[in-house]
Design brief:
Blueprint lengths: L1 H4 L4 H17 L3 H27 L1 H4 L9 H18 L5 H18 L5 H21 L9 H15 L7 H12 L28
Helix pairs in contact: 2-3, 2-8, 3-5, 3-7, 3-9, 5-6, 5-7, 6-7
Amino acid sequence: MRYLTDFADQAVILPLVFAVAIALAVQGWRRGAITWLIVVITTFAATLAFKLMFLACSPVFGPMDIHSPSGHVASATVVSGGLAVLLTRSRLSILPAAILAALVIGLSRLVLGMHSLPEVVVGAMIGLAGAAALLRFAGRPPPSLHILPLVAVIVVVTGIFHGLHLPAEAAIRHTAFRAAQFIPACRGTPEFYRQPAVEPAAARPDGF
């Protein structure tokens, strides 16, 4: 499961997103490249915002077992859906691919104990919203778009960066802790700063 979940790590996803955008622009599909970047980056930003909200207000959301929505699931969902429509040239493929990615990566996060089921579901919903936005705004790939160079870019970038990790969770927790001090309903010591007998998923370095 560790090998599988590493495909959705930000250390892999971020280079892949920019490499795909460059490959699309080089082949002349500027609308697709720009839409791809805007939607995927917006999805990442939304995931970060939800993480900060749930972490900062853990006294409020903690009983629902939501501390840090899964960034792995959100990223895999929106990127897989986008790549599916690029590679198949069928708008009908984007949502099935996004849902499959959410299920596969979500299961890996659950098995590894990195996230709770509600956290995986929230991450999947964010990613699916991004995939739906791609479906709405990207348009159809032009007939001149060559699939093989795009596949080569995906394989090469994934092969180079797979296994690397971007430890962003500690910085997110620290930011959320500071933000909580300015929100009356969220004041107090967030659960991820306590010292439980079993370390929660949100406090693990690769819990993003």
